[in-house]
Amino acid sequence: MPPPLNPPSCHSPDPEPNPKPHSNPPDSPSPSSNPDPNPSEPDDDMSKATKAFNKVMKLEKDGSNWSTWDYDAKDPLTKASLEKRLFSLTCTNPAKAGKHLDNLIAIMDELAEHGVSIPDSQFKLAIISSTPDVYQATIKALITVYREEPNKLTPEMLITAVHAETSSSNKSQESANYCNDNF
To answer: Domain for residue 26, yes or no?
Structure first.
Protein backbone atom coordinates (compact mmCIF):
# COMPACT_ATOMS: atom_id res chain seq x y z
CA MET A 1 0.00 0.00 0.00
CA PRO A 2 1.34 3.41 -0.88
CA PRO A 3 2.18 5.91 1.84
CA PRO A 4 -0.39 8.64 2.54
CA LEU A 5 0.06 11.95 0.71
CA ASN A 6 0.08 14.00 3.90
CA PRO A 7 1.61 12.05 6.69
CA PRO A 8 0.25 12.88 10.11
CA SER A 9 2.36 15.19 12.19
CA CYS A 10 3.80 13.99 15.43
CA HIS A 11 3.32 17.36 17.08
CA SER A 12 -0.25 18.09 16.31
CA PRO A 13 -2.85 15.51 15.61
CA ASP A 14 -5.00 17.94 13.60
CA PRO A 15 -2.88 20.69 11.94
CA GLU A 16 -4.80 23.83 11.06
CA PRO A 17 -4.86 24.28 7.30
CA ASN A 18 -4.62 28.13 7.47
CA PRO A 19 -2.59 29.10 10.52
CA LYS A 20 -3.12 32.63 11.87
CA PRO A 21 -0.03 34.79 12.38
CA HIS A 22 0.96 35.71 15.89
CA SER A 23 -0.19 39.13 16.99
CA ASN A 24 3.34 39.95 18.15
CA PRO A 25 6.00 37.90 16.47
CA PRO A 26 8.65 36.89 18.96
CA ASP A 27 11.48 38.75 17.15
CA SER A 28 9.76 42.15 16.84
CA PRO A 29 9.52 44.38 19.89
CA SER A 30 6.11 45.41 21.04
CA PRO A 31 5.19 49.10 20.65
CA SER A 32 5.48 49.62 24.38
CA SER A 33 9.05 48.33 24.42
CA ASN A 34 10.43 50.90 21.88
CA PRO A 35 13.97 51.79 23.04
CA ASP A 36 13.67 55.45 21.78
CA PRO A 37 11.74 57.46 24.38
CA ASN A 38 11.15 60.30 21.82
CA PRO A 39 10.16 58.57 18.61
CA SER A 40 10.45 60.72 15.52
CA GLU A 41 7.64 60.21 13.10
CA PRO A 42 7.98 61.37 9.48
CA ASP A 43 4.95 63.63 9.97
CA ASP A 44 6.66 65.27 12.95
CA ASP A 45 9.78 65.93 10.86
CA MET A 46 7.70 67.52 8.12
CA SER A 47 5.82 69.71 10.54
CA LYS A 48 9.10 70.84 12.11
CA ALA A 49 10.48 71.68 8.67
CA THR A 50 7.30 73.52 7.75
CA LYS A 51 7.37 75.50 10.97
CA ALA A 52 11.02 76.40 10.42
CA PHE A 53 10.34 77.42 6.82
CA ASN A 54 7.40 79.57 7.87
CA LYS A 55 9.76 81.53 10.13
CA VAL A 56 12.01 82.44 7.18
CA MET A 57 11.56 86.09 6.23
CA LYS A 58 10.24 86.51 2.73
CA LEU A 59 11.72 89.16 0.41
CA GLU A 60 9.55 92.23 0.07
CA LYS A 61 8.90 93.52 -3.46
CA ASP A 62 9.93 97.03 -2.45
CA GLY A 63 13.38 95.83 -1.31
CA SER A 64 12.87 97.03 2.25
CA ASN A 65 14.21 93.84 3.83
CA TRP A 66 16.75 92.76 1.22
CA SER A 67 19.68 93.66 3.43
CA THR A 68 18.56 90.83 5.72
CA TRP A 69 19.58 88.41 2.95
CA ASP A 70 22.95 90.19 2.20
CA TYR A 71 21.42 90.90 -1.21
CA ASP A 72 21.76 94.57 -0.44
CA ALA A 73 24.09 94.35 2.52
CA LYS A 74 25.80 97.41 3.91
CA ASP A 75 29.03 95.62 4.63
CA PRO A 76 32.53 96.71 3.54
CA LEU A 77 32.65 94.17 0.70
CA THR A 78 29.50 95.58 -0.88
CA LYS A 79 30.78 99.11 -0.55
CA ALA A 80 34.13 98.15 -2.07
CA SER A 81 32.40 96.32 -4.91
CA LEU A 82 30.26 99.36 -5.70
CA GLU A 83 33.28 101.68 -5.69
CA LYS A 84 35.16 99.28 -7.94
CA ARG A 85 32.22 99.21 -10.39
CA LEU A 86 32.02 103.01 -10.38
CA PHE A 87 35.67 103.38 -11.38
CA SER A 88 35.93 100.38 -13.70
CA LEU A 89 32.89 100.83 -15.93
CA THR A 90 33.63 102.12 -19.41
CA CYS A 91 31.48 102.79 -22.42
CA THR A 92 32.88 102.63 -25.93
CA ASN A 93 29.58 102.67 -27.82
CA PRO A 94 28.34 106.26 -28.24
CA ALA A 95 24.77 105.05 -28.70
CA LYS A 96 24.86 103.61 -25.17
CA ALA A 97 26.46 106.61 -23.46
CA GLY A 98 23.17 107.78 -21.95
CA LYS A 99 22.53 104.39 -20.37
CA HIS A 100 26.12 104.27 -19.17
CA LEU A 101 25.74 107.63 -17.41
CA ASP A 102 22.49 106.42 -15.85
CA ASN A 103 24.39 103.37 -14.53
CA LEU A 104 27.04 105.63 -12.99
CA ILE A 105 24.35 107.71 -11.30
CA ALA A 106 22.64 104.54 -10.00
CA ILE A 107 25.93 103.33 -8.51
CA MET A 108 26.45 106.71 -6.84
CA ASP A 109 22.94 106.48 -5.40
CA GLU A 110 23.65 102.98 -4.08
CA LEU A 111 26.88 104.17 -2.51
CA ALA A 112 25.02 107.04 -0.83
CA GLU A 113 22.44 104.55 0.52
CA HIS A 114 25.33 102.59 2.01
CA GLY A 115 26.75 105.69 3.64
CA VAL A 116 29.65 106.09 1.21
CA SER A 117 30.29 109.60 -0.03
CA ILE A 118 32.35 109.91 -3.19
CA PRO A 119 33.66 113.48 -3.69
CA ASP A 120 32.44 115.27 -6.81
CA SER A 121 36.02 115.49 -8.05
CA GLN A 122 36.26 111.68 -8.03
CA PHE A 123 32.86 111.22 -9.65
CA LYS A 124 33.83 113.68 -12.39
CA LEU A 125 36.95 111.62 -13.06
CA ALA A 126 34.83 108.47 -13.30
CA ILE A 127 32.55 110.19 -15.83
CA ILE A 128 35.40 111.66 -17.88
CA SER A 129 37.46 108.46 -18.00
CA SER A 130 34.56 106.18 -18.87
CA THR A 131 32.72 108.17 -21.53
CA PRO A 132 33.20 107.29 -25.22
CA ASP A 133 35.94 109.20 -27.03
CA VAL A 134 33.46 110.95 -29.30
CA TYR A 135 32.28 113.03 -26.30
CA GLN A 136 35.77 113.97 -25.07
CA ALA A 137 35.78 117.24 -27.08
CA THR A 138 32.63 118.40 -25.28
CA ILE A 139 34.09 117.39 -21.91
CA LYS A 140 37.40 119.17 -22.67
CA ALA A 141 35.49 122.32 -23.61
CA LEU A 142 33.71 122.28 -20.24
CA ILE A 143 36.97 121.67 -18.39
CA THR A 144 38.56 124.60 -20.26
CA VAL A 145 35.67 126.92 -19.39
CA TYR A 146 35.95 126.00 -15.71
CA ARG A 147 39.78 125.80 -15.60
CA GLU A 148 40.06 128.70 -13.17
CA GLU A 149 37.40 127.28 -10.85
CA PRO A 150 37.24 123.51 -11.45
CA ASN A 151 34.95 122.97 -8.42
CA LYS A 152 32.19 124.88 -10.22
CA LEU A 153 32.11 122.18 -12.89
CA THR A 154 29.77 119.64 -11.34
CA PRO A 155 29.19 116.01 -12.31
CA GLU A 156 25.63 117.00 -13.20
CA MET A 157 26.97 119.52 -15.72
CA LEU A 158 29.17 116.86 -17.33
CA ILE A 159 26.29 114.40 -17.47
CA THR A 160 23.93 117.00 -18.92
CA ALA A 161 26.46 117.97 -21.60
CA VAL A 162 27.05 114.35 -22.63
CA HIS A 163 23.31 113.63 -22.62
CA ALA A 164 22.74 116.69 -24.82
CA GLU A 165 25.51 115.57 -27.14
CA THR A 166 24.04 112.06 -27.36
CA SER A 167 20.63 113.52 -28.18
CA SER A 168 22.05 115.69 -30.95
CA SER A 169 24.15 112.77 -32.25
CA ASN A 170 21.09 110.54 -32.33
CA LYS A 171 19.08 113.22 -34.16
CA SER A 172 21.91 113.73 -36.64
CA GLN A 173 22.12 109.99 -37.19
CA GLU A 174 18.34 109.77 -37.71
CA SER A 175 18.50 112.67 -40.13
CA ALA A 176 21.36 111.04 -42.04
CA ASN A 177 19.44 107.77 -42.21
CA TYR A 178 16.38 109.63 -43.47
CA CYS A 179 18.44 111.31 -46.16
CA ASN A 180 20.13 108.06 -47.16
CA ASP A 181 16.73 106.32 -47.38
CA ASN A 182 15.31 108.96 -49.69
CA PHE A 183 18.17 109.09 -52.19
So the answer is: no
Which residues have a Cβ under 8 Å from the Cβ of 89 and sit 6 or more positions away?
A: 100, 103, 104, 107, 126, 130
Say if CB 69 and CB 59 are below 8 A apart: yes
CA distance linking residue 76 with residue 153, whole number of Å: 30
Residue 151 is assigned to a structural domain of this protein:
yes
Instruction: Quote the CA–CA distance of 61 and 72 in Å, as a whole number.
Output: 13
pLDDT digits (tens, 9 = 90+) for 77-123: 888 999 999 999 999 999 999 999 999 999 999 999 988 999 999 99
Provide the pLDDT confidence category of residue 179 given band limits of 50, 70 and 90. Answer: very low
Q: Kindly report the length of the chain.
A: 183
Instruction: Please give the residue range of the domain that contains residue 130.
Output: 73-182
Distance between CA 94 and CA 98 in Å, rounded?
A: 8
pTM for the model = 0.55
Would residue 128 count as lying in a domain?
A: yes
What is the count of structural domains for the chain?
1
| Helix H or strand E segment including 49 | helix 42-54
What is the number of alpha carbons within 13 Å of residue 169 lying toward its C-beta?
16
Tell me the pLDDT tens digit for each residue of 148-175.
999 999 999 999 999 998 887 665 555 4
Q: Is residue 120 part of a domain?
A: yes
Per the CB < 8 A criterion, the answer to whether 127 and 160 are in contact is no
